[in-house]
Write a structure and sequence with these properties.
The complex is a heterodimer of chains A (200) and B (466). In chain A, 80% of the residues lie in helices and 0% in strands. Chain A has 200 residues and is mainly α. Chain A has one domain (2-78, 88-189). The radius of gyration of chain B is 22 Å and the shape is globular. The A-B interface holds A 115, 131, 138, 142, 144, 147, 150-151, 154-155, 158, 161-162, 165-166, 168-171, 173-175, 177-178, 181-182, 184-185, 188-189, 191-193, 195-196, 198-199 and B 67-70, 127, 130-131, 133-134, 137-138, 140-141, 144-150, 152, 154-155, 158-159, 162-163, 165-166, 169-170, 173-174, 187, 190.
Chain lengths: 200, 466
């Protein structure tokens, strides 16, 4: 019972973190919420994986946030403190869209649970929430940093659900490589053409 | 010594070493030579068979390599595939210096090629989706020059390619369930849908190909051409692995129809959009969409032709794309723009470059006596036997592509009466394009020259190869 409550608390944490990423315009906060998101992913994953294997996700996620943060900080200081902008900017719109997605996720969760024997409802809900919020994020921006954060969110959601069906070390390693690769690509795209202030 | 070491790990080491030369010519030459050497090794070295070097010494190249508890294995049947992949990659690397992109394309291209070979060799084959995604990430610096801010094309490319991986991995897991309970129709439909979505993202199937014309305006045409050759080729081979592995998928009644519909949609939309373009790069982008459409159509005919039509298409398409991309890169390097308004009458200044560009374009549009004509005719005939309406749509797409070629020709000859003919472009650029043109003509007239290579290619796929 306590484990169930803990799992649902993690789902709430994941939703809150992904919503916060969607709403905040400060890149520092975005990356901090991304790090929190990975903490939730780690805690949900370790119910199916060993602690050491699940810790790979946490370490990778925090490394990803660090890479992006260092790159962003190294850019023009004036630029580094300016908020990211994307359309539509209205927070109310984003909150409503997130709530709508939450409803869709909860309606889809039960059917997916039937498909995946051995997985709990909180894991599926957490996974779908991240994937849906990541896709929403991708639909609202073309800024490299935000796009990479959106893709990382989608992948984080997928990794929760895939951890249940696949426990291979090679897959864990390749998924970590892909996450780190995405961060490096994000860093490259952030710095590409950085003479031009519009790049970020 | 193992086969995966030679054709996967060694090229990755070479990719790192190829960053060292400072001169682009040397990088291109070494890269081309290395890839050619790897292709020759694949042609000559037997895998998993003892090779007697002398009375007392023998050598055996083992097929497998274990990494993190999983096997990466290259069998002797996959040798011709390696010849094809590294052989065509060497063409691209040799031409990269003329396109002015050798120092980025050769090392990155070598690493991507090695990863795509790894995607064919990894077991279980499903993990290939992860390796293809890694290769896609490596391709980003190639497609987005460091001094240029990233455009919408590269962002969409990154998003679409990344989204493909979860769909394919999850579908792969469901497919294992379908194998154990093939009667579960709901599971079959779910896994097939997820798989179709994954491959649609990877292959840029309509309407997910919007990044292609965008990215070709942002990046060097030669780099985009290389990725548009390698990525679909590797993805199609991965797709064939799925079909080869799962009998129920191979025998799925709706599969040929779905492949045919997707292929026709790609050919018709790509061809028709190509007819209305006013940018030479975008025109090539739409032609690659048509190419993907033909590969899909050739797969839809696998019950009649096995894989012969599919493999027959690969080489002429790659050759045409290499010549086309090189010609566009030369024009972009020298003229700065590929817009119709800026290249009016330039055929008089770049006769060899335009000859390459136009012949590659006409070849993609299946003009007789050019390289792509024989395979396209075979596919067209196969489709016409199944559905006449489909054959007509295919014809409409080709007519669109042909119209684009005629428009390019018309614009390129609009020179003022006072202008004179001259040969611009470097010696290397003109020679490479000239050789490419020659091969386009030779393969058009003598398609049987490819037979020794093609005859063994389908053997890599036990159940599909016939």
């Amino acid at each position: 019972m306590i484990a169930q409550i803990f799992s649902w608390a993690l789902v709430v944490l994941l939703f809150a973190a992904s919503l916060a990423i969607l709403l905040t315009r400060d890149w520092r906060r975005s990356l901090a919420f991304l790090a929190i998101q990975y903490l939730g992913v780690f805690l949900l994953t370790q119910t199916h994986w060993t602690l050491s294997m699940a810790a790979v996700k946490l370490v990778t996620g925090w490394m990803v946030a660090t890479i992006l943060g260092i790159t962003r900080t190294a850019l023009d200081p004036e630029l580094a403190t300016s908020p990211d902008r994307s359309l539509p900017e209205s927070r109310l719109f984003r909150i409503l869209a997130a709530i709508l997605l939450l409803l869709v996720v909860f309606s889809a969760t039960t059917s997916l649970v039937d498909l995946l024997p051995g997985i709990g409802v909180p894991e599926v809900a957490g996974s779908l929430i991240l994937m849906a919020m990541g896709l929403l994020h991708l639909g609202l921006t073309i800024q490299p940093l935000r796009v990479v954060i959106g893709l990382l969110t989608v992948l984080a959601g997928f990794e929760i659900i895939y951890a249940v069906v696949e426990t291979s070390t090679l897959v864990a390693a390749l998924l970590s490589v892909i996450n780190l690769g995405l961060a490096l690509v994000g860093a490259y795209l952030l710095t590409a053409g950085s003479d031009d202030l519009e790049a970020i | 010594m193992s086969a995966p070491f030679i054709w996967i790990i060694l090229p990755i080491i070479l990719a790192i070493l190829l960053w060292i030369p400072r001169r682009a010519n040397i990088t291109a030459f070494l890269g081309g030579l290395s890839a050619l050497f790897l292709a020759a090794l694949a042609w000559l070295l037997p895998i998993d068979t003892a090779l007697r070097l002398s009375a007392t010494v023998s050598f055996k190249l083992s097929a497998s390599l274990e990494i993190l508890g999983r096997q990466i294995s290259i069998s002797s049947e996959e040798g011709p595939l390696l010849v094809l992949i590294y052989g065509i990659a060497s063409l691209w690397f040799f031409g990269s210096s003329a396109a002015g992109i050798a120092r980025r394309l050769v090392p990155i291209g070598m690493a991507i090629t090695a990863l795509f070979v790894a995607s064919l060799a990894v077991e279980p084959f499903l993990y290939a989706a992860l390796i293809i995604q890694t290769a896609t990430l490596i391709a980003v610096p190639l497609l987005s020059p460091p001094k240029q801010k990233p455009g919408r094309g590269i962002i969409r490319f990154l998003i679409y390619q990344t989204l493909a991986m979860p769909f394919i991995l999850f579908a792969g897991w469901l497919l294992a369930g379908v194998e154990s309970s093939p009667g579960d129709i709901e599971l079959v439909v779910q896994s097939a849908t997820l798989l179709a979505l994954g491959f649609s993202f990877l292959l840029a199937i309509f309407p997910l190909y919007t990044w292609i014309p965008l990215i070709i305006e942002e990046a060097t045409p030669y780099a985009v051409g290389f990725i548009l050759w390698l990525l679909p080729s590797a993805t199609f081979l991965f797709m064939l692995s799925f079909l080869d592995r799962y009998a129920w998928l191979r025998e799925f009644p709706q599969l040929p129809m779905a492949l045919r519909a997707a292929g026709l949609l790609m050919i018709t939309t790509g061809g028709i959009w190509a007819a209305f373009q006013r940018h030479l790069g975008r025109m090539m982008g739409y032609a690659t969409i048509v190419n993907t459409g033909f590969l899909l159509l050739s797969l839809s005919l696998f019950r009649d032709y096995q894989l012969s039509a599919f493999f027959l298409l690969l080489t002429p398409q790659a050759l045409g794309l290499a010549v086309w991309a090189l010609a566009l890169s030369v024009l972009k390097l020298r003229e700065g723009s590929l817009e119709f308004s800026d290249i009016q009458g330039t055929i008089q200044r770049y006769p060899i470059v335009f000859t390459g560009l136009l012949l590659a374009h006409f070849s993609a549009a299946a003009l007789p006596l050019l390289a792509s004509f024989p395979p396209i005719l075979a596919v067209w005939e196969g489709i016409a036997r199944q559905t006449l309406v489909g054959a007509l749509w295919l014809g409409a797409g080709l007519a669109g592509l042909f119209t684009g070629a005629i428009r390019t020709l018309a614009v390129s000859v609009m020179a003022s009466e006072k202008s004179f003919w001259e040969i611009n472009g470097s010696w290397l650029q003109n020679t490479l394009i000239g050789i490419g043109v020659l091969f386009i003509l030779i393969l058009g007239v003598f398609p049987q020259l490819l037979h020794p290579l093609l005859v063994n290619l389908p053997l890599a796929f036990e159940h599909l190869g016939g």
